[in-house]
Amino acid sequence: MSRLLSGIKPTGDIHIGNYFGAMRQFLDLQNEFENFIFIADYHALNQLQDAKELSKNILEIAKAYLAIGLDPQKVTLFKQSDVPEVTELAWIFNCLTPIAELQRAHAYKDAVAKGSPINMGLFDYPVLMAADILMYNADVVPVGADQKQHLEMAQDTAKKFNKVFGEVFKVPKERILASVATVPGLDGRKMSKSYKNTIGLFDSEKDVLKKVMTIKTDSKGANEKKDPAADNIFALHKLFATPEELKELERAYKEGGISYKESKELLGIRINNFLQPIRERKLELDVNEEKIKEILVAGAKKAKSEAVAMMKKIREKIGVEI
Ligand code: ADP
Ligand code: TRP
């Protein structure tokens, strides 16, 4: 069975962009692969340095994974930091990675462009991510489009190590679904925690209805013809409507039979219908946090045994085992 691996950083509330871009694939593929899904807490540390907040976010992601329907019997769920071997491997990869390559990384270039303070963790982010992926010999890594460059860097790292020290690593493949590669946020930019333009996976019904009313549109009036391809509300409908509902909506847009306000109200209802069962499962998990911790401990044990065996091989290859 091929192996699938992916992770999400616990840097804030999980949103529907994370769900459709990444998590939904974990769910759809859980029966087809051997799965390793983790919480990238050491990755979060470069931007989130508040212990209470980080602990809270870690639990939230674990709840999100379980609330959407990941089955711990089929998926090894764990915290990145419970397998510290991964930071050891990141060091080894650091020694193979040219600085110039990391200087070309989008996340780093964005931080430079914004004049944000940059710590070594941010600069080195793709190297730790390569270690996450290669440590567990992943065949497939499902992510959103913004992670493509990181995946390419992991592929390059695998090839480079294999060339320098001999074959150890598989070259992993990314899996990016074109239809949901970038879910737009309320303001039309990519939905992202950092833009505060998100609809949260655990948002209340009321919050969802309030947020959808703030989606930016052009100023076309109720009866004017509208271009579905140029509208943000429509782009979000695509994620929640059935094909028939979408066809009907497209017709109404093109004929000028629906106002943006009506389209937003309909979207709010559709999103809430979709989120309702997830919210209900989250409530059950809120009163069962001990169980969640047990799942993570069991996952860490399995992931760690893989990592220890892998590190033994790697240490031999690089020559530190004498
Ligand atoms: P954020 O941008 O909110 O900080 P993350 O970087 O933590 O989100 O992303 C976690 C996962 O969700 C990644 O695989 C990423 O590609 C995916 N993702 C995040 N935002 C979106 C989006 N708007 N559309 C599609 N996928 C997304
Ligand atoms: N960089 C990913 C993100 O920002 C999170 C991540 C860390 C990850 N390590 C990974 C994703 C390994 C896939 C595989 O969302």
- Helix and strand content put the structural class at mainly alpha
In the CATH classification, which architecture of the largest domain applies? Answer: 3-Layer(aba) Sandwich
Largest sheet: 3 strands, parallel
Distance between the termini: 34 Å
Question: In total, how many domains does the architecture comprise?
Answer: 2
Kindly identify the CATH topology of the largest domain: Rossmann fold
Question: Helix proportion of residues, in percent?
Answer: 55-70%
Order of helices and strands: EHEHHEHHHHHEHEHHHHH
From the alpha carbons, calculate the radius of gyration and give it in angstroms. 21 Å
Proportion in β-strands:
5-15%
3D structure, described in words:
With 322 residues, the chain is mainly alpha-helical. It has 2 domains: 3-181 and 288-318, HUPs (Rossmann fold), CATH 3.40.50; 202-283, Orthogonal Bundle (Tyrosyl-Transfer RNA Synthetase), CATH 1.10.240.10. 56% of the residues lie in helices and 7% in strands. It contains 14 helices and 5 strands. It has a 3-stranded parallel sheet. α3 (51-68) crosses α13 and α11 (232-240) crosses α13 (260-286). The radius of gyration is 21 Å and the shape is globular. The model has no long low-confidence stretch (mean pLDDT 96). Bound molecules: adenosine-5'-diphosphate and tryptophan. Tryptophan (TRP) binds next to β1 and α8.
Topology:
Layout: E1 3-8, H1 16-29, E2 34-39, H2 41-44, H3 51-68, E3 75-79, H4 85-94, H5 99-103, H6 106-114, H7 120-123, H8 125-135, E4 140-142, H9 148-165, E5 173-175, H10 205-212, H11 232-240, H12 243-255, H13 260-286, H14 289-318
Parallel strand pairs: 1-2, 2-3, 4-5
Bound molecules: adenosine-5'-diphosphate and tryptophan.
Tryptophan binds at residues 5-9, 40, 43, 129, 132-133, 141, 143, 147, 150.
